[in-house]
What does this fold into?
Amino acid sequence: MAISKIVLITVALIGMCSAGIVVPAAAPVVDTRYDPLPQYTYAYNVQDALTGDSKSQQETRDGDIVRGSYSLVEPDGTVRTVIYTADPINGFNAVVQRGPLVHKTLVPAAVVPAPGPLVTPVGRVLG
It folds into this structure.
């Protein structure tokens, strides 16, 4: 009885394929590319006069400290700006500010001339 328990435990640890053949279990994968002091900086800015889309963001990370901000134009035309920091001691903190109304610039539509009178090839005006 003791021998059968040892065999079952060994098969469970090693693994068995569907054909019943014992195969060695895969070793756990360890990622050795860990960066103990990650650093990055990025930013973007969108100003689309056609759609009125206006937003931006910037962020910097130095180790466990992240600082950044983003802003966007709300549907009512006010500007919302969020300034944030995150670190292991204070956690995530954000300050939200609302700015004055932004005057939207309208993109003029293409001007199509009004149709004039229809003139035949011999110069007669129809209609």
Observations:
- The two ends are 109 Å apart (CA to CA).
